[in-house]
Amino acid sequence: MEPIRVRWHGHSCFEVSGDEVTVVTDPHDGRSIGIQAPKVRADVVLVSHDHFDHTAVRVVSKPESRIITDPSPVKIGGLKIRGIQTFHDASEGESRGGNIAFKFILEDVSFCHLGDLGHVLTPKQAKAIGRVDVLFIPVGGVFTIDAAAAWRVIEMVKPAIIVPMHYRVGGLSLSINDISPFLEGADPDCVIKVGNIVEFSKADLDDEQLVWIFAL
Asked: 195 lies in which domain range?
């Protein structure tokens, strides 16, 4: 079995590739938020909500791409996907609407991309997500949960690997916080700078919870 390859394209956009399928999450178009556009063609595109910085499907899709925008369970080859309905704010969607947390399993590794989660998960939502190997979690606050709330969600989900996202980086035109407040809550010995791309397999994951910091 080939290793899984994860690449960060900035903001909430990740490319997750296995033997036969490439999944891209929440694509942006680059220029509208001040960073480079994703350079990838996806077999499956997951869209957590309909805001402009998460819905640039045309940038990453090809004619045969599957675009997933609702929480209904779906199986595409060896890829299993299901969504958990959440909200983009702390008032059950009154301010910013709904948000889907997508859980997907690829090459026996379970991922969860929380999109623009705007609140701490309820126990029911956390139970619906279940066991997660890799958790993509927003940490920049303002439009999503902030660092403190992110750590509360992490404690509920207990992933093996934590991947912070949706925080301010150089060039980003969105007024959100950088990653510093989030890292203040992390054990420095468990923070790993993985660069732009990381390859791993299920066997590489152990009992120690790690924070993977991606670079653009």
From this structure: 4-214
